[in-house]
Amino acid sequence: MAVAARTWRPQIRVAGWWRYVVALVYLIFVLAPFAYMGLVALQSDAAAGQGDLLLGQPHWDNFTRIWQTVDLGLYLRNSLIVATSTGAISSLLALGAAYVVARFRFPLRNLFRVSLLATQTVPGILLLLPLFVIYIIIQHSIELHIVGTYWGLVLTYMTFALPFAIWLLSVYVKSLPVELEEQAIVDGANRFQVIRHVTLPLAIPGIVVTFVFSFLLAWNDILFASVLTSPETKTLGPGLQYYVSESFSIPFWNLLMAASLVVAVPAMILFLIVQRYIVAGLAAGSVKG
Amino acid sequence: MPVPYWLLSPSVIPLVVIVFIPMAFAFYISLTGLNQNTIGDWTHAPFVGLKHYLDGLDPRGPLAPSFYTSIKASVVFSVLTTILILPIGVGAALLLSGRLRGRTFMRAVMLLPYIIPTFVNGILWRLVFMTNTGIADQMMGALHLGARDTFWLIGPRSLWALVLADVWASWPFIYLMALAALQTIPPDVHDAARIDGATPLRLFRLITLPLIAPTLGLGIALSTINHFNNFALPFVMFGPTPPDEVNVMPLNIYVNSFITFNLGLGAAMSVVALLIMLTPAVIYLRAARIGDTD
Question: Which residues of A touch B133 (CB under 8 A)?
Fold first, then answer.
């Protein structure tokens, strides 16, 4: 034992030294583009346009100008409404289905579970195209407008958010002890009460993860948003492009970078909150299935 | 106990209405000449059968150059990026699963490129690769690696601009998968091997790698699929008229469907894209159900 300890302890010290060099390389690789964004965000219009690599006087007022140059407040509000609705509705609907998948056997159960995973591999554009055509047909035939509404967008995001949420929550619910539910049934609770008072409180960590994933799916989208929004319901994805559109005499790269940093913050905070659940969830989802 | 189908239906009905019916409808559209003139009266859109598929897939067909350019661009992009992010992601996972001061901080920072919205990522790299004024050209000029007016956003180099932008943003996905897999390895497995005198390299090759291989396989399949379906990054970096090298299938389909409004042709292309993705998708579906016996 003592011999083994003597032979490998110095190795760890040497390996430890290399570890910090590698860590530094990773840090620079990850953070340098963010530093560049920060630099440009604080530059004057002219300096950003010429691509200066030095920061003269920092233009902190860029962070107030972003709200006046384009209607960033509206896009932010729209994105918040659509992303929050997508996250909340998907998670709630999914909990019921996930509960049934986790606790019951029924005909076509396996086909249902495979199709949940299979939808994750479908290109977004394959669904956008027929959905767009269907929405237009509905609009022509019964005068019900879907394109350009919040709920039309939320419904469309659910094509991807709902299957993922059901899958993840069913894995989670399955890991919960079934005894508590049985006890509640013995005590005279009906199925809804069991889910409401027993399963739901225990599944909160899983629900948080599905909410965040569904929220980010909507928050980060540009494909569906560029086709299915109107000027009033435009979200951040297509909205941000206006800073460098031809309607201005010069492209506002500095404002675009400042606004990009601002809209990235909510996504980052949400993701970092659920970080530890995600690593655990990925392990459970991929290893235990 | 009776199966509570009423709990299942609020999810199954929307799935049928917004996923399964539209997918079936997409196949039908791909067999018609649906465009902006016929969309108001879609039942009368001319039925053209396999015309769009033959136009694009027959090497002598009128649309074959555009079809094959996009298929090639998509395959090259998704395979190349997946190969590149694999060592970067596994390396970071190995580094951050071991003992390291500031590990919690590092773990959070490593995720940042993956979390920022893809459209923000596209905007950032469009600025980096601007001709003359972008930091890429300025650094190439300063280091005498190339001319300051090198084109990155048009012409053949656009592929490398897209690959670099994507590698930076997507490697943490492999890192997350690898980290999750590493955490399931009991520490005494490594301790035992070390006491038996295994070098770190042998330890990785003979013990760690086989243990994380199933999860990595899942990560590779998913990464290939996600890259193949990536619309946002090439769209934001290159716009609706991209260079051939980066005219990936989702972008080509988008232009055909929503800019020139040739919906039948766009649907046919997206069906082809789905069929190409069948191989990694089947690998993914099989891998994701490992150990699933019930």
Answer: 49-51
